[in-house]
């Protein structure tokens, strides 16, 4: 069948548009039908009741409203205000992303399939490309398109054949903001909540907290992205519990202890993975991991003997946290014997450690599959600036880049500590910034929160920790 040079009739185009947007079409139809059937007074009363109901929900239960309804309302508003009609077609035309139909000479504007807006600053707009367009064409126009849509930043990803997703960063919530100061250290252990350790702020300006008890964290970011602020914020958040022997931290620092060495008194065990003469000795770090695993095995047995399924935090049964600063050395780049041993012990601790109170927190610069073969075992994933888009999903999980986690676009320097976090059960990444930790903040932590003496029930600090 040959192609006609006539355009499809208006009524057909209108009908197709209505079929594609059933919600928008059905609203006026339902209101009209209700007014005709039940009268305008009843219809207005129902509409007013609905409005009051929504207002009560908005005011009465902000958590559920903001989580369930607000993103949908925001997406609808953006769909029909920011990405609709002439505004949309003009933006695409200015960026040379519309095409002219060869026979009819009618302009073909790529059609929006879906708009999602899970956070106020990031929208995901799925667009059906017109024939002849490629991903590259859209990617080449990303910058002018961001300007045309008055967005801060825009990234184009292909999600299906002929369909691209525009991840539109409308604003940069941390752009001009000053670094976040370290939170004050809690007065005493009763003020520490292990299910909500403060780390910084969310993009909404709210406190950003993470659960440490019963969780394993993966913290990834290139050098200079601010992983240090994440580590010290975590330790600061649980400081009083460390002092009181309710949290024990084992620190393995294969980078030679440059950063963590000064805080050695804070740790139950500390290994800089070096010998006394400064040569690298990964096996001493693996020994610390082994002692963490052994303690877990012992706690499991004690709980079993006592007929308990879960531990309760106490001086006798503290939360045992193993931190590894630069996991890559122990998971990929070290000598094969140490790597094999470390991975086996860590995997054992991670798979069995939740119930008896053993958490693993790892920091890594290059989060590839080879470097983090155990990444599926992490339940909380935090991703600061990365160099490659491919690494984003490797840290946060499949689909997170497409869901707006543009960690590879975070500028270094001005945005140190900015990143995305993803929890086990959540489908969306959240944008966050860790609190900055100065040398004085770290010194204060060590001064005020180092355990004065090891609790009687635990093995003494290793040589390195007291050296
Ligand atoms: N949350 C933050 N807010 C503001 N500035 C920060 C923050 N975190 C770190 N910085 C600054 O960024 C720089 C690099 O930080 P940091 O050393 O923590 O990076 P890193 O990711 O640990 O790097 P490496 O892997 O090389 O140790 C430091 O100068 C620090 O002062």
CATH hierarchy: architecture of the largest domain:
3-Layer(aba) Sandwich
Number of strands: 16
As for the number of domains, it is: 2
Which small compounds were modeled alongside the protein?
adenosine-5'-triphosphate
The largest sheet has its strands arranged as 8-7-16-15-14-9-13-12-10-11
The overall pLDDT, averaged over residues, is: 87
Instruction: Quote the CATH topology of the largest domain.
Output: Rossmann fold
How far is it from the N-terminal to the C-terminal residue, by CA? 86 Å
What is the general shape?
elongated
**Proportion of helical residues:** 25-40%
The CATH superfamily of the largest domain turns out to be: P-loop containing nucleotide triphosphate hydrolases
How is the main sheet built?
10 strands, mixed
CATH class wording of the largest domain: Alpha Beta
InterPro entries: FtsK/SpoIIIE/SftA (IPR050206), FtsK_dom (IPR002543), P-loop_NTPase (IPR027417)
Protein name: FtsK/SpoIIIE family protein
Domain FtsK: 194-393
Keywords: ATP-binding, Nucleotide-binding
């Amino acid at each position: 069948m040959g192609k006609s040079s006539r355009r499809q009739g208006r009524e057909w185009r209108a009908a197709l548009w209505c079929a594609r947007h059933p919600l928008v079409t059905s609203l006026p139809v339902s209101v009209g039908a209700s007014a005709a059937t039940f009268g305008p007074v009843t219809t207005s009363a129902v509409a007013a009741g609905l409005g009051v109901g929504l207002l009560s929900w908005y005011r009465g239960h902000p958590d559920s409203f903001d989580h369930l309804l607000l993103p949908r309302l925001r997406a609808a508003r953006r769909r029909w205000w920011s990405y609709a009609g002439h505004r949309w077609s003009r933006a695409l035309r200015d960026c040379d992303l519309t095409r002219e139909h060869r026979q009819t000479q009618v302009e073909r504007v790529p059609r929006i399939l879906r708009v999602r807006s899970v956070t106020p600053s990031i929208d995901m707009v799925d667009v059906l490309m017109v024939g002849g367009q490629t991903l590259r064409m859209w990617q080449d126009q990303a910058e002018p398109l961001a300007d045309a849509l008055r967005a801060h930043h825009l990234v184009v990803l292909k999600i299906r054949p002929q369909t691209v997703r525009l991840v539109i960063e409308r604003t940069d919530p941390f752009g001009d903001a000053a670094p976040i100061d370290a939170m004050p250290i809690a007065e005493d252990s009763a003020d520490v909540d292990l299910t909500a350790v403060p780390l910084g702020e969310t993009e909404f300006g709210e406190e950003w907290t993470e659960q440490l008890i019963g969780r394993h964290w993966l913290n990834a970011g290139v050098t200079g992205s601010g992983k240090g602020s994440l580590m010290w914020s975590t330790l600061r958040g649980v400081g009083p519990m460390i002092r009181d022997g309710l949290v024990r931290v084992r620190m393995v620092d294969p980078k030679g202890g440059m950063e963590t060495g000064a805080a050695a008194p804070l740790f139950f065990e500390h290994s800089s993975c070096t010998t006394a003469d400064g040569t690298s000795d990964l096996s001493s770090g693996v020994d610390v991991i082994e002692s963490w695993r052994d303690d877990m095995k012992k706690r499991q047995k004690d709980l079993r003997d006592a007929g308990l399924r879960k531990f309760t935090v106490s001086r006798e049964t503290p939360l045992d946290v193993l931190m590894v600063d630069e996991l890559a050395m122990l998971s990929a780049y070290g000598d094969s014997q140490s790597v094999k041993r470390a991975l086996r012990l860590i995997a054992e601790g991670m798979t069995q450690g939740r119930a008896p109170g053993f958490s693993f927190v790892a920091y890594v610069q290059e989060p590839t599959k080879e470097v983090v073969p155990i990444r599926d075992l992490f339940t909380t994933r935090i991703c600061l600036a990365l160099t490659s888009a491919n690494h984003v999903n490797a840290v946060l999980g499949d689909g997170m880049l497409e869901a707006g986690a543009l960690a590879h676009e975070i500028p270094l320097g001005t945005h140190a500590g900015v990143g995305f976090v993803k929890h086990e059960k959540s489908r969306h990444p959240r944008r966050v910034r860790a609190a900055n930790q100065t040398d004085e903040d770290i010194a204060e932590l060590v001064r005020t929160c180092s355990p004065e003496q090891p609790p009687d029930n635990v093995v003494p600090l290793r040589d390195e920790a007291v050296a």
